Amino acid sequence: MSLKVGIVGLPNVGKSTLFNALTPGGAESANYPFCTIDPNIGIVEVPDPRLEQIAQLVEPEKKVPTTIEFVDIAGLVEGASKGEGLGNQFLANIRETDAIVHVVRCFEDPNIVHVSGSIDPIRDIEIIDTELALADLESVDKRVQKMEKMVKASKDKDQLVQFELLKKIKATLDEGHPVRSIDFTSEEYLIVVGFQLLTSKPVLFLCNVDEDSSLSGNDFSKKVADHASKQDQKSLILSSKIESEIAELSRSEKIEFLKDYGLEAPGLDRLILEAYRLLDLETYFTAGKKEVRAWTINKGTRAPQAAGKIHTDFERGFIRAETYHCEDLFEHSSEGKIKEKGRLRSEGKDYVVKDGDVMNFRFNV
C-alpha cells in the first residue's frame, strides 16, 4: 500500500524547508511566494523500532521498512479556488493525495515575509479551509445539477443513493463545515472516496515554531491545537529549522543534539508516524533468514487480504496463517521458544490481523 501525504500551507510557512529535512527530494527553499511550483515528491521510511528488534533476533540478510510518500505542494493564496496564484494546479495536486499535513506558521521572524503581512495561524488555516471548501462546493454543485436530471429519468437506485449523499454533502459545505465532519456509513464512505473531495481528506495540523518553542510550543501553536481539537483533528509541534539541522547529523550526533533540546526523538519521526496513523493504518511483519519486512495494511484487514499485500497468489490460494505477536518474540527470543510456550497460532480466513503480528502464510495455487 502506497500512502501519499500532501504537505500544504500558505507561501513562506516552511513547507519546503520541512520537506528537505524529511526527504532526500531536494525541494527549492527561498524567501518568496511560489518558490515551489511543481510538487516535489519524496519517499521516506516509517520509523518502527519493532522492525529493528525483530531483525536483531532473527538476523536476516536484509530488513525492509514500510514507507510513506510525501508531496510538497505549491503554496496557496486567497482566491485559489478561482484560479488565483497557482490555485488550479495546487487543488489538482491535493486531490491526488490520501491525507493532508497542513503546515501553519507559528513563529515570528522579520527576515521571512508573510504573504498576509502578519502572523495569525487561525486566519491562515481558515484561508486554506475556505478555498478547499469552495472548490468542493463547486464540484458538488456540478454533480448535483447533472445527477438531478439523470435520477428523474432513470430511477436507478444506485444513482439515487449518490444523489442523496451529494445533497447531504452540499448542505454541510453550505454551513461552512468540511466533508470529513460528516459521520458516513462504511457504504457511504466508499462512494464519497470516489468524489475526490478536498475537505474529505484527514488533516494533521503541523505547527512550525521557533527553536525555543520546539519542546512546549507557544501561544500560536496553542491556538492551532484548540482549533484542531474542535475539528476532531490532531496537531503537532516542531521546528523546521531544528529538523533541518538534525537531518545533517550522524546518528550519534543526533542523539546528543536531541538531548540538548530535551527532545526524545526527531520531530520528523513523530510526523511520519502521525501521518501513518492518519488513515488508520497499521503494520504486520514477515520474518525469515532472507528478509524481515514491514507491511502496511488498513485496520480491520483479514488474513487473506493481508497476504495479498505480498502477492495476489497468496490471497487467492490462502490456506492459513501461522502467526505470533512481535512482543512474544521479544519475550522469548526465538520462534522455537514461542512454539514451546504455545504462543504460535494457526489462523484462518476470518482472522483480523493485529498491529505487530508476525505472519507466515500457507497457500496453494
Residues in β-strands, percent = 15-25%
Structural class: alpha/beta
Strand order within the widest beta sheet: 2-4-1-5-6-7
Encode the helix/strand succession as letters: EHEHEEHEHHHEHEHHHEEHHEHHEE
State the total count of DSSP E strands: 12
Q: What is the CA-atom radius of gyration, in angstroms?
A: 23 Å
Specify the helix fraction band: 40-55%
Number of helices: 14
Biggest sheet, in brief? 6 strands, mixed
List unreliable stretches of 5+ residues.
25-37
The averaged pLDDT comes out at 86
Gap between N and C termini, in Å? 23 Å
Shape: flat
Structure description:
- The structure is a single chain.
- The chain is of the alpha/beta class and 365 residues long.
- Helix content is 42%, strand content 20%.
- The chain has helices at residues 15-22, 49-58, 87-95, 121-154, 157-174, 186-195, 219-230, 240-247, 251-261, 267-277, 303-308, 312-316, 326-332, 335-340, and strands at residues 4-8, 40-45, 62-64, 67-72, 99-106, 203-209, 234-238, 281-287, 291-298, 318-325, 345-347, 357-363.
- The strands form three sheets. A six-stranded mixed β-sheet has the order 2-4-1-5-6-7, sandwiched between helices. It has a three-stranded mixed β-sheet with strand order 3-9-8, covered by helices on one side. It has a three-stranded antiparallel β-sheet with strand order 11-10-12.
- Helix 1 runs parallel beside helix 8 and helix 4 packs antiparallel against helix 5 (157-174).
- The longest helix is centred in the middle third of the chain and has 34 residues, at 121-154.
